[in-house]
Amino acid sequence: MALYEHVFLARQDISNQQVDQLVEQYRGVLESNGGSVGKVENWGLKTLTYRINKNRKAYYTLMNIDAPSAAVQEMERQMRFNEDILRYITIRVEEHEEGQSAMMQKRDDRPRRGGRDDRGGREDRGDRGPRRDRDDDRPRRPRDNDSE
User: Fold this and answer.
1) What CATH class has 2-96?
2) In degrees, to the nearest 5, what angle opens at C-alpha 76 toward C-alphas 73 and 80?
3) Distance (Å, rounded) from C-alpha 23 to C-alpha 96?
4) pLDDT in tens, 111-131
5) Region labeled Disordered — which residues (predicted)?
6) Within a 10 A sphere around the Cβ of 138, how many other Cβ atoms?
7) β-strands 2-11, 85-93: how paired?
8) What is the model's pLDDT at position 111?
9) Residue 36 pairs with which residues in a beta bridge?
10) CA distance 88 to 14
11) DSSP characters for 72-86?
12) Is the Cα dihedral 77, 90, 32, 103 positive or negative?
């Protein structure tokens, strides 16, 4: 059997209990088709980047799945018909991560990215030299529509 990570987004106006019921419903679909569900993480109600079916927020849920592809296809088929599910994605993985996913870790625990120092500036400018603003040395060229 293959390993999958499955994330789905549920509508904002359902309750946490209804999200748990959805997880149990799809767990039953997978188990009846020979699969199993490992870790389930409820990431909570998060703001969407853009509206989906008039929803500005959604409940995010991650499921680690060990199932044949037919079971995953059946679960996805049933999700297409459920109007409480806004979006879903299933990704095949080589192995499931141990412990919490990146979404569940505290922000302080994650390694920093972006190459910025504590003041918000760049750490290393490399061989580009010091930064100059556009009009440090050059006089401004008058435009055609400038009135003098």
Assistant:
1) alpha beta
2) 135
3) 18
4) 666 655 555 555 555 566 665
5) 96-148
6) 7
7) antiparallel
8) 61
9) 66
10) 17
11) HHHHHHHHHH-TTEE
12) negative
Q: Which residues, including other chains, have CB under 8 Å from residue 56's CB and lie 6 or more apart? A: 12, 47, 48
Would you call 12 helix, strand, or coil by DSSP? coil
End-to-end Cα separation, the chain, in angstroms: 77
- Token output for 121: 């500036």
Element housing 25 (H / E): helix 16-32
Domain locations in the chain? 2-96
Structure tokens at 17: 């209990």
Q: In whole angstroms, what is the distance from residue 24 CA to residue 35 CA?
A: 13
Query: Which pLDDT band holds residue 49 (cuts at 50, 70, 90)?
Result: very high
Which tokens in the block code for residue 21?
């019921």
**Distance (Å) of CA 20 to CA 90, 121, 143:** 18, 44, 64
Distance CA 16, CA 132 (A): 53
Count of C-beta atoms within a 10 Å radius of residue 132: 8
Provide the pLDDT for residue 133: 59
Asked if 55 and 12 count as a contact pair (C-beta separation under 8 A), the reply is yes
> Order of strands across the sheet with 55-67?
36-52, 55-67, 2-11, 85-93
Half-sphere exposure for 134 (CA within 13 Å, toward CB): 2
